[in-house]
Amino acid sequence: MAMNCNPKDEVDGGPPCAPGGAAKTRRPDNTAFKQQRLPAWQPILTAGTVLPTFFIVGLIFIPIGIGIFVTSNNIREIEIDYTGTEPSSPCNKCLSSNVTPCVCTINFTLEKAFEGNVFMYYGLSNFYQNHRRYVKSRDDSQLNGDPRALVNPSKECEPYRRNEDLPIAPCGAIANSMFNDTLELFLITNDSDPTPKPILLQRKGIAWWTDKHVKFRNPPGEGTLEERFKGTTKPVNWPKPVYMLDSEDDNNGFINEDLIVWMRTAALPTFRKLYRLIERTDDLHPTLPAGQYYLNITYNYPVHSFDGRKRMILSTISWMGGKNPFLGIAYITVGSISFLLGVVLLVINHKYRNSSNTADTMAF
User: Fold this and answer.
1) Which of 120, 265, 318, 345 has the greatest number of C-beta atoms within 10 Å?
2) Within a domain: residue 358?
3) Structural domain that includes position 64
4) Got the DSSP string for 277-326?
5) What average pLDDT does this structure show over 264-283?
6) pLDDT tens for each residue of 94-120
7) Which residue windows does the record flag with biased composition (Low complexity) (predicted)?
8) pTM
9) How many structural domains does the chain have?
10) Given a cut of 90, is residue 62 above it in pLDDT?
């Protein structure tokens, strides 16, 4: 049935009348949703609803924050800076380019034993792995073992795409700047015995499982790893090709875990990356007993040119990961502020409610 045309609607901005008296309309359907008649609920903020909310948040957040903070403080951690910029540092001699390779030794003491598995990290400061061009300077297809990308890397790898007219494997600035210091840890059992005890450092199990088994793969083939990388060359700053990173095939080439860890770029200029794992051998003895240790460093990685710093970190972990007091402090701060606001609002509400009751009594 045709709609009647009302000229008044046309004057008021409605749809123009069509020939024959019929008019087209853009009016939405007469439903609760399209006419915005859905039922709604809006809380009324009163002292009876707001004050308990503040107190409940405070009473929940403060104990959680204390628990997280105490857990973080129970994690054992020690940092050894071995940049060598200080003249008294044993690694100061390694800043000279004439000394290669350079080995330096730093003695330190563990005041308390480290229980459970211990993680050894290397840390860098003032190193911007989050730079846009640096982050993009890689070829994930090549790292995944694609034969075509192996001989023809992505242009994103420039200027570390080819060298001496051969494709670089792995290409890009990230791989070219891979951390290559060697860290060794020794325990001095007693002063009378000059022979130190080497600490076993596990070089496997430091990379993410998905990276090791999904994202990084060696080129396919039946020959040796060297044959599969034939026709490529090493990155410019590397002392040896990628197929010589490790003596074991399951940790060599693109699936070398040191390479995999380095290729996962950090978001901040000061960061740490997992270097080795020290596993607990039995429940009767601590993994690292308290005592004298020394760190043997083969100093290869230059940081002095960009005012960077290098450090070695030994740390245990808990259910919440490594040592990080920030989360606990954040929970305690939010809970304390919420509880304090609840107290302030309670006092204000009590004061003004009494004033209102007094005024009503006087008026009566």
Assistant:
1) 120
2) no
3) 49-75+321-347
4) EE----SSS-SB-SEEEEEEEEE----GGGT-EEEEEEE--BTTBS--TH
5) 94
6) 888 776 789 999 999 999 999 989 999
7) 13-23
8) 0.79
9) 2
10) yes
